[in-house]
Each structure stands twice: as C-alpha cells, then as structure tokens.
Amino acid sequence: MPKEFNLKKEYEALRKKYKQLPSFKELDNEFELSMNPLKEIYEVNYPLRWIRRRMVDKIGWVANFLQNVLAPNPAFLVNIQESKFLESEREKIMVLLKDLMYLARRSMFFDLNLNDKTEAEFIASVHREWHGNKGKIIELVNKVNKGWKEETNEEITGGYIG
Questions:
Q1: What's the first-to-final CA gap in the chain, in angstroms?
Q2: What are the angstrom distances between the C-alpha of 135 and each of 16, 20, 105, 114?
Q3: Is residue 114 included in any domain, yes or no?
Q4: Under a CB-based contact definition with an 8 Å cutoff, are residues 70 and 83 in contact?
Q5: pTM here?
Q6: Residue 47 CA: distances (Å) to CA of 115, 121, 129, 145, 147
Q7: How distant, in Å, are the alpha carbons of 40, 67, 78 from that of 73?
Q8: Among the four residues 42, 45, 72, 146, which has the most C-beta atoms within 10 Å?
Q9: Is 162 inside any structural domain?
C-alpha cells in the first residue's frame, strides 16, 4: 500500500521555504484544499501547483457566475432573472470580473512556466486579492438571494407561464 499523502505537511514544508505563503488553514478555509477526494490521493508531486489550480477553480466558478449576470443566456431563466436583480451593479460586476479573470489567466502562465518560487508568489498574491474582493462578491450574492426571496412568480416569468 502506498504511503499516505499529507498535503498539509507538504505545504508547511514549502511554507518554511517560501515565507510569503499564507497558512494552510487560511487557504483550506477559503479554497477547500482538504476535500474528501484527497483521502484517495496517495501523492501530489507538485503541491503548490495543485493548490494554485484549486484556488483558480473557485475564482473561475465566481467569474462564471458574474459572466452569466453580465451576459445572460436567453435560454436560461435563472441567468436572465439574476441579471435583472443586479442590473444596477453592472459596472461594479465588470470591474470584479476583470480582476478575477486577470487572476485566472495569470494562472495559465504558471502552467506554462513551472517554478515553485513563482507559484508561491502567485498563491500569496491571490490570497490577498481574494480577500480584497470577497466582500464585494458576498454583497452581490446577497442581492441575488434577496431578489429570489422577494420576487413573485409572475415577476420571474414576466407574466408567461409556459
């Protein structure tokens, strides 16, 4: 049986080398590094690369939500409705989307230029920038939730019941 892999131990060893890295606990809390599938993983050869990609997964998920609000697919009622809920926030959403997409696309650079030192710098900077944007994301999500709670069925369907 292969030896048990411990991402936290691997990360902490790298954190001693790259002092700018945030704590594993902080990253795990925000980007779910200790998810259950890791129990089935016996080895990760490049922990910083894996963590970076995990962080970008969450950033991409939020960016996708924002994209759907800015340019809703007319075939999806949810996208159209959420776009209406956030109509007054379009400028703010565009700035936020730009910031998140910059991070996501910067990550592509690291997939092409493999280097632990630059991976560590990227992880630290994304961690800082994520916290700078998190409050804005929460504010938008709260407005969407409020919209879903307050809208009537007729307002959501636009009077059409198909």
A1: 57
A2: 30, 23, 22, 32
A3: yes
A4: yes
A5: 0.83
A6: 12, 14, 21, 36, 40
A7: 37, 10, 9
A8: 72
A9: no
